[in-house]
Each structure stands twice: as C-alpha cells, then as structure tokens.
Amino acid sequence: MSDESTTLLDATGVGRALTRISHEILEKNKGTQDLVLVGIRTGGDHLSRDIFNRIRDFEGVELPVGAIDITMYRDDLGIRSAPQMHSTEIPFSLDGKNVILVDDVLYTGRTIRAALDALMDLGRPRSIQLAVLIDRGHRELPIRADYVGRNVPTSISENVEVEFDSDGTALQIRLIKPRS
What we know:
By secondary structure, the chain is an alpha/beta fold. It has a single domain (10-75, 88-156), classed as Rossmann fold (3-Layer(aba) Sandwich), CATH 3.40.50.2020. The protein has helices at 11-28, 44-59, 110-122, and strands spanning 4-10, 35-40, 65-68, 98-106, 127-135, 147-151, 159-164, 170-177. The strands form two sheets. A five-stranded parallel β-sheet has the order 3-2-4-5-6, sandwiched between helices. Helix 2 links the parallel strand 2 and strand 3 (65-68). The longest helix is centred in the N-terminal third of the chain and has 18 residues, at 11-28. The chain is globular.
C-alpha cells in the first residue's frame, strides 16, 4: 500500500511563513546589525537564501549568508550507510555575530545539536538563534526554535517533506502518513 500525503503549506503559504519569520528576525534583533544567516544543508540553506532575499527587500541590506554541512558532526554517523558530504560555505567570521541558524524541519533536535557543534568549531558567535519552517515536535534534546513558520503535531511514524524546485524555492510541504 502507498502512503497518504497531505499538503501542509503550498508555495504561497511557505512564502507567507518566511515573510513573517524574516520580520520577526528583524524585530527581535532590532535591525540587521551584526546579523548573519547560516542554513543547514540541504534544506535550510535554500530557506536561508529566501530569508536573505526578503530582508534585502525590506531593509535594503544584504546580510552575510552561508551554508553549513553537519555530516561529520552527526551522532548517528556510525550507523548510517555512506553519508553524503556537502560543502560548508561560510565566507565570513562568526565571531561576535548574531547567527540565525536556518533549517527546514525541526524534529528530534539532533541535527540542530550537530549544527551548533559545527558552528562553534568555526568561531565564537555572540548568539545563535534558530529559524525553522516546520516544528513537528518529538524532541529528544532540549532544543527550541526562536522562529517557527508552522507547528505541526505529528506521530513518530509520519514524515514531513519539503519539496524544492531547481532554484531552491520551497514549493510545498507535505505530511506523509504511512497506510496501515
């Protein structure tokens, strides 16, 4: 039997959520001073570019934006088969910056823990704030997002998938429920 899927957010809904998150980031940080964006590969990096574009449009400021690969920081590295490595591209100093760490879906918190370790190896930020498009619950670690597009209570057997186009624009977010 095939799985059932439900669209949680279409492209318009994703756009609204990212616009709101962008405004909240600016409000909480009182502007763009010492603010940098870092997306977690391979979903958060696309979303961080989208937030970059929105903040540029609102404020006329181009924030430093980068992407981080957390593969070697994962706590399940030994049990995963042939992890796919991506590049980390952070062409600016993190020292003294307010880092907005961006990911697509927050679940157990283990990806975010790995990203925090990776960021700390690259510098000493003043603060790290977390922005996620979807928070689905089921935390295994004490991780909380500062900015959330949408909270979606899920069961452990369900999955949340973010579909991106070839340009990295989020097209839709679907909840996948296994059929019994």
